Amino acid sequence: MQASTLTALKELALHCARSAGELSLARMKQPFTVEYKTSASDLVTAVDKEVEKHVVETILRHFPDHGILGEESTFAGDPRQFDTLWVIDPIDGTTNFVHQQINFSVSIAVYHKGEGLVGVVYDPSRDEMFYATKGEGAYLNDQPLRLERQVKLEEALLCTSVFWNKRAEQIGIDLIVKKLAGKVRGMRLLGSAALEMAYVAAGRLDGYVSLSLNAWDFGAGRIIVEEAGGRVTTMTGSPLPFDRKSSVMACNPAFYEELQHYLNLTENDMADNGAT
Ligand code: IPD
Ligand code: CA
Ligand code: CA
């Protein structure tokens, strides 16, 4: 891909993320409808849908032949039929958007034939833009991000997400939190996977682990962490997919192996507990 095309994709992703974030903030100040998707723990608002529609229309105006994989699916089609695919979460952290009115983000990634080219995570409440372009490093508001500090596992602050599987168990508690108790400095749950991965790239958190995320939750964060020098795989150590659900482990490379050792998860553990 030509350097000028890559720059154009990055500029458009940044523009879309900023305008999407500004739209979310403006709409948050007025009443909006909230619906349950699958349960009372799985929300979608009218703002999620409006913001995704706005982003998709903007992208397709510039690149009508590109594909879109978005959480609110305003664009249909098999993601693999497109060479260039935009992976979008208009509001990552909808529950935070509704309750806390902070700690949510816009996540936009561009993949070409399965390779991550551009990742952007924008936190409109704090006006923080995290982004990366393949081979060109990661940035926070134009400041380069580089994970150079050698962090020991006992010094690491990690983030995770727990979720309710079909049997209504918080499987992250048993398979992640209990195993890491006493091994790491602390665990946090911020409620926006994209933002948590961006914070790993920025060194505010040292690692993020989740048993199951959708492609739009980790699509951008993964590129930003990798470009900052972090390591990102599934929780069992395989490469992450770009177009489907997966477990995710993103961390400072200094303790990656040790963390895998303590989590000690097999594909069977994952399947038995409804993780991906
Ligand atoms: C959710 C957030 C949350 C994670 C969930 C996601 P949403 O995304 O990223 O941190 O734990 O698994 O579904 O629904 O707010 O876009
Ligand atoms: Ca999400
Ligand atoms: Ca979302």
TrEMBL record:
Its EC number is 3.1.3.25. GO terms for biological process: inositol metabolic process; signal transduction. It catalyses: a myo-inositol phosphate + H2O = myo-inositol + phosphate. Its cofactor is Mg(2+). It holds the Pfam family Inositol_P. The lineage of its organism: Bacteria, Bacillati, Bacillota, Bacilli, Bacillales. PANTHER family: INOSITOL MONOPHOSPHATASE, INOSITOL-1-MONOPHOSPHATASE-RELATED. PROSITE patterns: IMP_1 (PS00629). Mg(2+) binds at residues 71, 89, 91-92, 217. GO terms for molecular function: inositol monophosphate 1-phosphatase activity; metal ion binding. Keywords: Hydrolase, Magnesium, Metal-binding. InterPro entries: IMPase, Inositol_monoP_metal-BS, Inositol_monophosphatase-like, Inositol_monophosphatase_SuhB. This is Inositol-1-monophosphatase. Belongs to the inositol monophosphatase superfamily.
